[in-house]
Amino acid sequence: MLTKAVIDHLQQKVGIGNVYHEREDLLVYGYDATPETRGLPDVAVFPVNVEGIKAALAVCREEGLSVTPRGAATGISGGSAPVAGGMALGLTRMNRIIEIDEENLTATAEAGVITVDLFNAVASRGLFYPPDPGSQNVSTLGGNIAENAGGLRGLKYGVTRNYVMALSGLLYDGTEFFTGGKCVKDVAGYSLRDLLVGSEGTLGIITEATLRLIPPPQDKRTLLAYFRDIRTAGEAVSRIIAARIIPATMEIMDKMTINCVEDYAAIGLPRDMAALLLIEVDGHPAVVAEEAAGVRRVLEEVKADEVHQAADATQAARLAAARRTALSAVARVSPTTIIEDATVPRSCLAETFAEIERLKEKYHVRVATYGHAGDGNLHPTAATDERNTQEIANVHAFFSELYDKVLAMGGTVSGEHGIGTAKKEYLLRQLGEGGIGVMRRIKDAFDPSGRLNPGKIFSDKPIASAVRRSGGQDV
Ligand SMILES: Cc1cc2nc3c(=O)[nH]c(=O)nc-3n(C[C@H](O)[C@H](O)[C@H](O)COP(=O)(O)OP(=O)(O)OC[C@H]3O[C@@H](n4cnc5c(N)ncnc54)[C@H](O)[C@@H]3O)c2cc1C
């Protein structure tokens, strides 16, 4: 509990309307989009400039408070849940696009800018910012950078890391950092920028980013393939890649996802199919025509049950929008939705789908699977109820066994959602104590006090004030 004097001081430095300290306000800042992970901050602060962040950090150091950076809280690994209490530091009011540099093809923006706002701003100048997480209408650039977010275009265009040229921000001790710049090549010293991308708010607070832009593709074509056996869809993905075709997008939805999306968006998807692939090729018109023909050829070879081409850009956009609703559509089915991020080499997709089907039967769980199939990045999502302890135990057993298989195939426990609190146990399985130990030493170098977003990625010591919901891992 902070004293009135501390709250007054914060309000004076950051602005009276940018500091929340009443319990009913703080409850809202205790969680993100992750089930089973909650905390309660002592105070929530939303600075509007770097000076405000500096002042907030100074108070935290004086009062011994931990700090949890927070973007739009769409994270699905628990990253912005303040599990150790302290300060929830919201970046959403730092939301200016500072510059679009058409000579160097860069954009510089504050961390709280919403992803799609940057996309639209650069598109209006004839430029393209490709990273497009499904949450892009809400998520912030700072959150995208801290999670190294992927998206539907990741297959051809890469993930957020591939577009971060420079970062500015602050360490917990108040040190300001500037790393990178507008130079296309820059190997001056260790790349702190690359350490910060994907650091989940545990190393530094990102306040501003300079991002790489590219010219937009001139043309695109969207294909939709339906399958009666999901393993054939997995095989199709592997074969398209093996045919040296890299579509911009290659997304998969299984039967349960198709039905949830159809219930929600009613766009005429066939409810009886086991899977669909949404494939988009883009680029020079001649290349688009050639690649679309190549994709069709592979789909015929693997005997896809139906193949359609989007009639026009509007229909293509509707299909992509429908895929983006997958998580929200599945979330309507039950009180608790647990989404995972299992990622495998693309040649192992068919085997992974078979394993998911086997484990669903073994553990009697309702799981919808969709994701960025072209990246080997699947989101098996359990529709469950955290009040039902037996069902939750089954869901965790399902995911635990699935991750054993994923790791045995050379996969990873997170392709894009990060580790946060939700996947710490799985990360330990993937990296072992040796790998985690190196990460702890990096954390110590940036944040020796351990007060910046504690309890995330790996356990240091148990955090007493964390609220643990049924099931799940320790925080
Ligand atoms: C419907 C839905 C669809 C999604 N689709 C995708 C997808 O396709 N691809 C994908 O990768 N993810 C996806 N996500 C997950 C999530 O949207 C991303 O991880 C996103 O990058 C989080 O951004 P945010 O602004 O909400 O960050 P938050 O959730 O608020 O924070 C995420 C992490 O970043 C840290 N952080 C936030 N801002 C800063 C900052 N300025 N400086 C330092 N650390 C910071 C936080 O401490 C936390 O650890 C989806 C989520 C939902 C709900």
Summarize this structure as a short list of keywords or feature phrases:
475 residues, alpha+beta, binds flavin-adenine dinucleotide, single chain, five-stranded antiparallel β-sheet
Could you please describe the fold and organization of this structure?
By secondary structure, the protein is an alpha+beta fold. Helix content is 36%, strand content 20%. It contains 15 helices and 18 strands. A seven-stranded antiparallel beta sheet has the order 14-11-13-12-16-17-15, sandwiched between helices. A five-stranded antiparallel beta sheet has the order 6-7-10-8-9. Strand 8 and strand 9 form a beta hairpin. Helix 1 (4-14) packs antiparallel against helix 3 (50-63). The longest helix has 23 residues, at 424-446. 52% of the residues are buried. Mean pLDDT is 94; it is low at 462-475. It binds flavin-adenine dinucleotide.
Number of strands: 18
The strand line-up of the biggest sheet is 14-11-13-12-16-17-15
β-sheet strand percentage: 15-25%
* Largest sheet report: 7 strands, antiparallel
What is Rg? Answer: 22 Å
Helix coverage percent:
25-40%
The end-to-end distance, rounded to whole angstroms, is 21 Å
Please mark out the parts with pLDDT under 50 across 5 or more consecutive residues, or reply none. 462-475
Structural class: alpha+beta
Q: What is the number of helices?
A: 15
Overall average residue pLDDT:
94
Bulk shape = globular
Bound molecules: flavin-adenine dinucleotide
